[in-house]
């Protein structure tokens, strides 16, 4: 029988080898994994990361700009669920600069 390729059916021996195809699975891997998050708008490492109530993660500057350019239709850029600046949760962790400082500067009414 012909094989469909290495990614069609990975055996446990192959999936634990740490090859390029296994790099997206963070379960149980502690070495070599960068503990950063990717913004769903700019697709770069999230700066001042926030998470929406629908579970999507963004850079606060990216999400703030998204919301400012769509004042009449504030929806999640990923799933189109309702979203607002007061209903996002800042994420703190290693390398975090603290989104609250950015919130204080960029959310003043006016």
Automatic annotation (TrEMBL):
<feature type="region of interest" description="Disordered">
    <location>
        <begin position="1"/>
        <end position="33"/>
    </location>
</feature>
<keyword id="KW-0808">Transferase</keyword>
<dbReference type="GO" id="GO:1904380">
    <property type="term" value="P:endoplasmic reticulum mannose trimming"/>
</dbReference>
<feature type="compositionally biased region" description="Low complexity">
    <location>
        <begin position="1"/>
        <end position="27"/>
    </location>
</feature>
<keyword id="KW-0833">Ubl conjugation pathway</keyword>
<comment type="pathway">
    <text>Protein modification; protein ubiquitination.</text>
</comment>
<dbReference type="GO" id="GO:0044390">
    <property type="term" value="F:ubiquitin-like protein conjugating enzyme binding"/>
</dbReference>
<dbReference type="GO" id="GO:0016567">
    <property type="term" value="P:protein ubiquitination"/>
</dbReference>
<keyword id="KW-0479">Metal-binding</keyword>
<feature type="domain" description="RING-type">
    <location>
        <begin position="39"/>
        <end position="80"/>
    </location>
</feature>
<protein>
    <recommendedName>
        <fullName>E3 ubiquitin-protein ligase RNF</fullName>
        <ecNumber>2.3.2.27</ecNumber>
    </recommendedName>
</protein>
<dbReference type="InterPro" id="IPR001841">
    <property type="entry name" value="Znf_RING"/>
</dbReference>
<keyword id="KW-0863">Zinc-finger</keyword>
<dbReference type="InterPro" id="IPR045103">
    <property type="entry name" value="RNF5/RNF185-like"/>
</dbReference>
<dbReference type="InterPro" id="IPR018957">
    <property type="entry name" value="Znf_C3HC4_RING-type"/>
</dbReference>
<dbReference type="GO" id="GO:0006511">
    <property type="term" value="P:ubiquitin-dependent protein catabolic process"/>
</dbReference>
<dbReference type="GO" id="GO:0061630">
    <property type="term" value="F:ubiquitin protein ligase activity"/>
</dbReference>
<dbReference type="GO" id="GO:0031966">
    <property type="term" value="C:mitochondrial membrane"/>
</dbReference>
<keyword id="KW-0862">Zinc</keyword>
<dbReference type="GO" id="GO:0005789">
    <property type="term" value="C:endoplasmic reticulum membrane"/>
</dbReference>
<dbReference type="InterPro" id="IPR013083">
    <property type="entry name" value="Znf_RING/FYVE/PHD"/>
</dbReference>
<keyword id="KW-0472">Membrane</keyword>
<dbReference type="GO" id="GO:0036503">
    <property type="term" value="P:ERAD pathway"/>
</dbReference>
<comment type="function">
    <text>E3 ubiquitin-protein ligase.</text>
</comment>
<dbReference type="Pfam" id="PF00097">
    <property type="entry name" value="zf-C3HC4"/>
</dbReference>
<keyword id="KW-0256">Endoplasmic reticulum</keyword>
<dbReference type="GO" id="GO:0044322">
    <property type="term" value="C:endoplasmic reticulum quality control compartment"/>
</dbReference>
<dbReference type="InterPro" id="IPR017907">
    <property type="entry name" value="Znf_RING_CS"/>
</dbReference>
<dbReference type="GO" id="GO:0008270">
    <property type="term" value="F:zinc ion binding"/>
</dbReference>
